[in-house]
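Table S2 (continued). Query chain:
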Amino acid sequence: MSGGTYLLTGQNTYSVALALEGFKAGLGAGDLLEANYTRIDAEKITPEDLGLFVSAAPFLAPKRLVVVFGLMERFEKQPRQPKKHARNKSGDDEDITALFAGVITNKPDSTELVIVAGNITGKNPLLETLGNNIEKKDYPLLSGEKLLEWITDHVRSDGGEITPDAARLLLRQVGPDLWTMKNEIEKLVLFSGGEKIDAGTVAMMVSITPEANIFRMIDAVVAGRSTAAELELEKLLSNGVPPSQVISMLARQVRMIAVAQDMLKRGFRSADIRKKLGIKHDFIMQKLDQSAKSFKISAIYKYYLQLAGAEMDIKTGRLEPELALSVLVENLTRTR
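Corresponding output:
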């Protein structure tokens, strides 16, 4: 069977990893998998180098698998270049796009090529050039009913059963990070010992990620939903996060939003922002991207003033820490 060419996109890295395992299993290489599998970080690879990898013959197996990371991102929108270099750079980009497209299109049938990317635009030059020569599979982060269905199915596949209320609580506690969700499900199934998992078990066993609640609180603040923001604050405090740490985390997130907003306006990609800020988790990067697009520039300065005021109220004893935070969140939801 001839090898195809595939593009896996999206920030659901758990499902992408499962898809890659499926490609490996489909090789039929058995104990010779390592000899017939190549993983490439293509941030700086040349078309010639990629050609050498994809043209190599399989070793005692019907096919070999080449998985490429970071290639499509190189063809996403780049920061603006000085006008005097614009014409030459445009020509260079067209040449490199054609060269990579030629290597990918003309690879031998004995090589199965999988290109892994994050979120890419429909106007990606390499993707446009490849056209029907590549099969695109999208793996977005799950949410809502689709994530609830995923939770129920994976609890069942692990030999357990979960109530709808417990599944919804688990979704609120963990969010769309399927790597963490899978670990929590394994823990819950093991703890329940064959009994149906209920909301009480989830509340007792599953810890809340502070970073996730900070972003949920910021979402509510930006939307002006004071009640929802207060609920997220209560979750943080009830899970032992000190008020001073809540303020520090809020200040950190506002700073990150300001940096991301500035970089987006200057034409940088999400991958550049992620590297600059050292963000490791897809969920956090997605929420940061959403917040950067929702925030008004004028509000960021006001947010910093509110944060500084709350910190001063706590340090001087003018307000009790929890009351100062409650007042802060209420004020932030009114800031525009």
